[in-house]
Structures are given as structure tokens and as C-alpha cells.
């Protein structure tokens, strides 16, 4: 019965070092962090060229069950060629960042803005979100578009609570039913969900664990050949703080929003910045039909579709390079242009 109270337990910040730095709860005291205005610490890592030598500064936002150590298949050659500085960080409650008991759509944007300011990225920077990590990007487009030099949403998840989604596209969609069940469970029976994700009675309690219902053949190939695939394992989820952070993340992402992406007006009428959405045609986590619909309502968004791509586009080095070149240089490879008119 004890686990039934996990959802109500207060989240605790990570312990502090002698000088006020947040210490890694996993034993890595060398982890870099910045302190936010509310006292929380965000952990981050840097890749690519040195910041002061860079032409492009890109904040990368990880998805569900991932971290700043996520696999992002951008080659060293590309980073050096274009002089790209990548900033990856642990979103609140993930990895080595403190949880945010007041997490909201807007708090995700303010976390990113404070991180960028603390690390002196400049008045503008690029942002790239992956899967569930795209809702912070939508939040930035809503609340701080003037800070963005460009935005890329890679396989952005769909919130089935968005009112504009046509019933003809969502009726009978098993993902809609699954999302509804998960949202109800994390809200009203978190202890039950915690038990299910950590129990040892059944052979596999992780619905996404290389499940062919969610991963296409290309994804499964990536999972087999790419080291470092991350999804929350049972040992991590057993930590009450980790579980509570995941729970809050899901509630914000799949709950009722303060706005809907399709209602956003073009924040860049002079084309001073570009927004890109990348979708895999064979994606079984996010259906391409819904992604096409979203983009049909946002003509200022550039839509790219990878013909044989699934949900793990960032594991494909060729696609990763195309995403960065599109974001930073405005390139639009013909192979990723949809062969249809949006809105069809």
C-alpha cells in the first residue's frame, strides 16, 4: 500500500555542495549546472565547437524518459564545418536537474530562457525539440518567439485533447485511447502506474520496449545498431522523485493546454526566423496524418517528411544532418518534401 502514496510525496531538490552547486544524486559531482531564479538547478552538457567560436548556438530539448545524454547523431565533421555549438540539458526532474513541482507549459519556456541567459547564448538562439521534448518548443514559440533564431520540432507528439483535431483522423486511433488511459492513471492512480512499471511478475511492463506496435522496422534497426538508446528503466522509475517528475511531465504534455499550436499566429511575418517540423512517414508513435493536419493549419511552418523514417529520426545520421542544415542554413532537400498538398 505504500506505493499508493507516491504521487502525493513532495519532490526534493538535489543535495548541494559546499559552494551551493547542485550535486549529482547518481554520484557524478562534475556535472555542470546553472541555478534558476526559483532556486532549482538545471544540469547541462555542451557539444560541438566552443561557444565563443560558434556560428550557431542550438539548444536541444530531449523527450520522454531521456536526458542531456541523449543520442543525437550529428557528426563531429558537421559540427566543425558549420561551427555549431550544441547545448543539451536535463529538463526539470530528469537526469541531474531538480524537479519542478509547479511544472507548466510556460515554465518549460522560462527554464530554457534562463538557461540561455545564464550561459550567455546571446539575444537569440536556435532550438530543437524531440518527441515529447517538442512541447517546450511550442511553449517557446508562444511566449518567447523573439528569442528564437529558428526552431525545429522533430517527430513532435500529438496531444489528443487539442480541440482542432478532426474526429475523422482520431476515431479508432488506439494511441488516443492509450493517452487517455495514461492521463487518467497518472492523475488519479499514480501508485498503480508505479507498480505496473516496476513490477516483476509480468515479463514486460514497458509498453514501448521495442514493441513493434510503436516502432517500425527502421526504428527497430536503429535500436539494434545504435548504442546508448535511452528509455526509462525500472531501476530509475523506482526512485519516487523520478517517477513524480515523469508523472508531472505527462500531465502537462497530455493535459489541457493554455493554447493550441494550430491557433498560433505567424510570429515571423518577415521570415526573420523559420520553424520546421520533421516527421517519419512510418512513425507508429505519432501518425503522419495528424502531423500533416497540424501543418496544414500553420502555413508558416516548413514540413519535412522522411519516407521510410519512424519515430527515431535523430538516430539516423543522414537525417540528423539534414535537420541541422535545414534549421541553420535553410536547406530543403527534395527527398524530404511531401509529395502532396498540405490539407489534402
Structural commentary:
This protein has 344 residues and is of the alpha/beta class. It contains eleven helices and eight strands. The protein starts with 31 loop residues before the first strand and ends in a 15-residue tail after the last helix.
Offer a concise description of the structure:
Helices cover 31% and strands 15% of the residues. It has helices spanning 76-82, 105-118, 135-143, 167-170, 174-188, 190-198, 217-225, 234-237, 240-254, 288-296, 317-329, and strands spanning 32-35, 41-48, 56-61, 84-89, 125-130, 148-154, 274-280, 301-306.
List the helices and strands and how they pair.
Layout: E1 32-35, E2 41-48, E3 56-61, H1 76-82, E4 84-89, H2 105-118, E5 125-130, H3 135-143, E6 148-154, H4 167-170, H5 174-188, H6 190-198, H7 217-225, H8 234-237, H9 240-254, E7 274-280, H10 288-296, E8 301-306, H11 317-329
Parallel strand pairs: 3-4, 3-5, 5-6, 6-7, 7-8
Antiparallel strand pairs: 1-2, 2-4
Helix pairs in contact: 2-3, 5-6, 5-9
Low-confidence stretches: 1-27
Strand content of the residues, in percent?
A: 5-15%
What fraction, in percent, of the residue positions are helical?
A: 25-40%
Number of helices: 11
Determine Rg (CA atoms, Å): 19 Å
The SS-based structural class is alpha/beta
Distance between the amino and carboxyl termini: 52 Å
Strand arrangement, major sheet: 1-2-4-3-5-6-7-8
Give the biggest beta sheet: 8 strands, mixed
Q: Roughly what is the average pLDDT, rounded to an integer?
A: 84
What characteristic shape results from the CA principal axes?
globular
Sequence of secondary-structure elements: EEEHEHEHEHHHHHHEHEH
Count of extended strands: 8
